Amino acid sequence: MKDKRREMVKFCDLKYQRPDFKKEEQEIRDYIETLKHVSSGKELKEVYQKEQKRSEYLQTMQVLASIRNSIDTRDEFYENEMKIFHGEIPKIVLLYQEANKVILDSPYREALQEGMPATLLTDMEIEQTLASEEVVKDMEQEALLCQQYSELTAVSQIQFQGESCNFYQLLKYMQSSRREVRKGAFEAWAALYEQIAPELDKIYDDLIRIRVGMAEKLGYESYTKFRFAALRRYDYKEGDARQFRSQIREVVVPFCQKLYKEQQAQLGIETLYYYDESISNPNGNAVPKGTPQELVEKAQQMYHQLSPETGEFFDVMKESELFDLETRPGKRPGGYCTFLARDRVPFIFSNFNGTSADVDVLTHEAGHSFAAYETGKTEIPGDYVFPVNEIAEIHSMTMELFTYLWMELFFGEQAEQYRYTHLADAVKVIPYLVCVDEFQHRVYANPDMTAKERRAVWHELEKVYLPWRNYAGNQFLEEGGFWMQKQHIFLFPFYYLEYALAQMGAFEFFVKSKQDFQNVWEDYYRLCRVGGSMGYFDTLKFAGLSNPFEKGTVRSIMEGVARELNLSL
């Protein structure tokens, strides 16, 4: 299949130019008029595909500005550019909504079912309900509040051991082999969140008010139902999510309690406090050896040995400098993979902090990026390069597990320690993932809750999903302040259950790979190339993976993982 990418230059040399939004709007109006006069299914498809190609410029400029804004939130130019996009994009959304309505009303609409993503027309129908003139200002305000949150968390600093640290710089100290250092870093980390908590509460209050109001104006029964539609959760409903969380409570939470008991014994401590949870060995966690540049070199070697396709992918990423990995003052927290539509290549953003998480980035975000890179070679429209999140996270989490074979490159004699800890941690995080999900369900079911009441809800849920959690008397966290550290709750509402669902798929791939790695790799590679061309359940079937909502699936998958960890379920 012909590679659809254009000749790539280094990311730093990509030229940003603010789009002419008036011209963009006119181009879409012209597109609408053309759609109204097509005379065949073939012509409809050609007009649609031509517009998809034309729109890549606007998409790419928006992503480029967003990346550069997140690299340095203090850069006034890109901060202002993002504010302009926040004001203009809702108008563009409404125009495309109008265009899609013409397609949906066309007698030739079925032509878009041939060789196009299976959910394309369904998506267009759902999108008709997700925006209107009435909520344009709300959409803009929501985006500005999210930007305000990102800027606040990026610039927040606290003094620790003579160093001015942001959240990510503290995480390194929170994994120290010296317990008093871990405890001090934990207290500084909690104090930093407590310090900005009033501002975070205010931002979240405003976000909830705007989001609930938008859903109401658009005719949705609740914001939760609106968000399920926006996330393309067509194959499952709120009740299915509850049933999945129930499986986690019944199977995974008790297993995690065993893992933490084992960890406590390994550390030789009487009580496992929160600041002990992130360390697996009394001598400290496995730490990658080498500078960030050396880690990238080792990753390149690893991906060449994994497969010709991953080797090619990482060469392009490295040569074109399609990542920004090191943490710096003013840089937005977290990590992500995004896609430059015009160039058909991904970009990785992260915050290296000198811990094993740096290697996790080179596998997790690389999993996303590899899938986007492969789909970028195809005819799949840019909007469908990434599949639904439940599938996209299988790409990333499976890559983390498949690359275990090369961990000696990064950790030397500590490789086996890393592998065990990483797999155990992948299990331990699942109850937290569904805890975040239920928290959001509770919040949006009761949007008038005060900040104090939200903390009480989080504290209540921690007892259910994280019964081992002990904050060593820290009042802010004991009263439920821990939820604030999860940026998804602010920026990507309800996007968190997907990680737990996808982890089941990744675990299933991993357990199967222990018997026949090459064949399972081929299944994974095929999964990476289909992008969002199918719905969630159909994509699972295509990859030979189980449906995690079906009763007994979680237990069956976890039994295989438990064997790998030499512990009974």
Automatic annotation (TrEMBL):
<dbReference type="InterPro" id="IPR011976">
    <property type="entry name" value="Pept_M3B_oligopep-rel"/>
</dbReference>
<dbReference type="Pfam" id="PF01432">
    <property type="entry name" value="Peptidase_M3"/>
</dbReference>
<keyword id="KW-0378">Hydrolase</keyword>
<dbReference type="InterPro" id="IPR001567">
    <property type="entry name" value="Pept_M3A_M3B_dom"/>
</dbReference>
<protein>
    <submittedName>
        <fullName>M3 family oligoendopeptidase</fullName>
    </submittedName>
</protein>
<keyword id="KW-0482">Metalloprotease</keyword>
<keyword id="KW-0862">Zinc</keyword>
<comment type="similarity">
    <text>Belongs to the peptidase M3 family.</text>
</comment>
<feature type="domain" description="Peptidase M3A/M3B catalytic">
    <location>
        <begin position="173"/>
        <end position="557"/>
    </location>
</feature>
<keyword id="KW-0479">Metal-binding</keyword>
<keyword id="KW-0645">Protease</keyword>
